[in-house]
């Protein structure tokens, strides 16, 4: 059940503003009104860029930026339960997962504060060439400019943190456009930033038409970097439209896991059952395609299926719930269509594949053809496939048989096989004896192929959000 409806305004230049128009935020679980936010457009986005550019005209020293980030981390910890409730109400994320997201966001701010404190360039060894003798040179890290940030619905607080915190650490002001389904978490984060002492203009939040606000971020030259997390179609199009900006993309995946016969099958089954269905599979690195060595296939399923069937499907506000709703009924229907498509081409549903009330039950599919959508595209729902393989070469080829490349996993006790797989799996990250859904916020996180072109994690994002300026001194 949703909590009491909240009303929030936009944040532009330190002012909370109304626009005369409202965007309603509805619970994905029961359709009730969770809140409403002022709905902005191109004009508000332009004013937000003006405010951000003005703020950057009066730079904040690193120690102040770090102190603000540390205070934000503290406030996130103090108000973690309120943050988790907000995430859960608007995204339909079970409280178990929403609490983890809130805790992780605090660590994202803490790590960004560390980066603000150590942001520095390099000394250049000038006398290493005859041309440099008699000169001293160093590089400075200069904030790249106004950062335009666009965030998705599925981690509405921590993925906003992953854009705002490194930008502030780097000395960049931000114009943020959160997902229309989940703007309340972003505006709560903005409130905490203000409370932490962030001066006006450094963080501006404009909710509303993605096309209008996106156009302003693409067209305004003062926005020198766009950081986008969301679907591949939207992300790559944005990058095409802004060839002279840095456009950093964190996109989707069709996450594979290879389970060798020598793996600890009990441990693999537990980790994969939890991580294929948490938040109903709506994580970019939700376990989706499990490849099990043929001689362990039955033994794996014997352990895996009861754990999947034991997951509690229900109200995300309930502490016991593991699997809640998809973000919209239309998404649930799309996922069901994908399951039907797999069945029509010979796949078998081992469990799930049907509704529990309005919610899709965790679904496990066997014998899916490699070209079925559930076996190569991003399902973004509570569905996984389990497929037998005979050789490691075959498993790696199956895992790589997707346009995506974000994270993949391997379960085995054979170190050599694990490291060979890590080298040959075409993904930005590979986990060994851990589900590929794992992420700690300081890790370099991001994909290759259609999954993106950058790495997030404060240290990596700060580097992207600064330019190296060379200074040469004649001695
Ligand atoms: P989405 O539909 O692409 O939306 C993401 C954001 O882009 C939203 O704020 C959306 O605004 C905005 N947007 C849509 N059209 C736009 C346009 N023409 N110009 C500018 N902005 C535009 O993605 P989603 O459904 O929210 O998120 C799910 C996707 O994100 C999945 O593919 C998932 O794998 C991916 N994801 C990736 C990561 C990662 O770190 N790699 C993490 C989480 C999620 P509106 O909401 O107003 O439409």
Strand order of the largest sheet: 15-18-19-14-13-21-22
Strand count:
24
Which ligands are bound?
Answer: NADP nicotinamide-adenine-dinucleotide phosphate
State the separation between the terminal residues, measured CA to CA: 70 Å
Task: Classify the helix fraction into a percent range.
Answer: 25-40%
Strand content: 15-25%
Globally, the shape reads globular
The number of helical runs is 15
Mean of pLDDT: 97
Report on the biggest sheet: 7 strands, mixed
Radius of gyration of CA atoms, rounded to a whole number: 23 Å
- Stretches where pLDDT is under 50 for at least 5 consecutive residues are none
SSE diagram, text form:
Blueprint: E1 6-8, E2 10-12, E3 15-17, E4 22-26, E5 33-38, H1 42-56, H2 62-78, H3 80-91, H4 95-118, E6 123-124, E7 135-143, E8 146-150, H5 158-170, E9 174-177, H6 183-195, E10 203-205, H7 210-219, E11 223-229, H8 232-241, E12 246-250, E13 255-259, H9 265-277, E14 287-293, H10 297-309, H11 329-344, E15 348-351, E16 355-356, E17 359-360, E18 363-366, H12 373-376, E19 383-389, H13 392-399, E20 404-405, E21 407-411, H14 415-424, E22 429-432, E23 448-449, H15 458-464, E24 466-474
Parallel strand pairs: 1-5, 8-9, 8-11, 9-10, 11-12, 13-14, 13-21, 14-19, 18-19, 21-22
Antiparallel strand pairs: 2-3, 4-5, 6-7, 7-24, 15-18, 16-17, 20-23
Helix pairs in contact: 1-7, 2-4, 2-5, 2-6, 3-4, 3-6, 4-5, 5-15, 9-10
NADP nicotinamide-adenine-dinucleotide phosphate (NAP) binds at residues 150-155, 159, 177-181, 210-211, 214, 229-231, 234, 238, 250-252, 284, 378, 380, 406, 452.
């Amino acid at each position: 059940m949703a909590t009491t409806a909240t009303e929030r305004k936009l944040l532009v230049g330190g002012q909370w503003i109304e626009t005369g128009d409202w965007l309603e935020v509805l619970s994905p679980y029961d359709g009730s009104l969770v809140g409403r936010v002022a709905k902005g457009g191109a004009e508000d986005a332009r004013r937000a860029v003006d405010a951000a550019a003005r703020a950057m005209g009066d730079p904040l020293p690193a120690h102040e930026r770090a102190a603000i980030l540390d205070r934000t981390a503290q406030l996130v910890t103090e108000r973690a339960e309120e943050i988790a409730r907000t995430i859960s109400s608007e995204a339909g994320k079970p409280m178990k997962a929403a609490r983890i997201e809130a805790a992780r966001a605090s660590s994202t701010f803490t790590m960004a504060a560390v980066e603000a404190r150590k942001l520095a360039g390099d000394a250049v060894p000038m006398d290493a060439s005859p041309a440099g003798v008699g000169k001293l040179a160093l590089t400075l890290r200069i904030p790249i400019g106004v950062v335009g940030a666009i965030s998705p619905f599925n981690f509405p607080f921590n993925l906003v943190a992953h854009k705002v915190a490194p930008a502030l650490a780097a000395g960049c002001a931000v114009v943020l456009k959160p997902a229309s389904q989940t703007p309340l978490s972003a505006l709560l984060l903005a409130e905490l930033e203000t409370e932490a002492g962030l001066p006006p203009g450094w963080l501006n939040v404009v909710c509303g038409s993605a096309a209008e606000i996106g156009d302003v971020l693409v067209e305004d030259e003062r926005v020198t970097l766009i950081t986008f997390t969301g679907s591949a179609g939207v992300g790559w199009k944005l990058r095409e439209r802004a060839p002279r900006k840095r456009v950093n993309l964190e996109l989707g995946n069709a996450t594979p896991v290879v389970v060798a016969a020598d793996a600890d099958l009990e441990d693999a089954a537990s980790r994969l059952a939890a991580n294929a269905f948490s938040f109903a599979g709506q994580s970019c690195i939700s376990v989706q395609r499990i490849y099990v060595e043929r001689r362990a296939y039955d033994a794996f399923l014997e352990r895996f299926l009861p754990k999947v069937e034991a997951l509690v499907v229900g109200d995300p506000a309930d502490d016991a719930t593991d699997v809640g709703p998809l973000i919209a009924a239309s998404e649930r229907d799309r996922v069901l269509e994908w399951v039907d498509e797999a069945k029509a081409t010979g796949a078998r549903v081992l469990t799930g594949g049907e509704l529990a009330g309005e919610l899709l039950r965790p679904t496990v599919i066997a014998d899916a053809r490699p070209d079925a959508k559930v076996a190569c595209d991003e399902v973004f729902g509570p569905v996984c496939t389990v497929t037998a393989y005979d050789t490691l070469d075959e498993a790696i080829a199956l895992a790589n048989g997707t346009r995506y490349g974000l994270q993949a996993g391997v379960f085995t006790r054979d170190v050599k096989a694990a490291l060979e797989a890590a080298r040959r799996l075409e993904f930005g990250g590979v986990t060994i004896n851990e589900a590929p859904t794992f992420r700690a916020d300081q890790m370099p996180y991001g994909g290759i192929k259609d999954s993106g072109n950058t790495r997030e994690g404060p240290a990596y994002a700060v580097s992207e959000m600064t330019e190296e300026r060379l200074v040469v001194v004649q001695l």
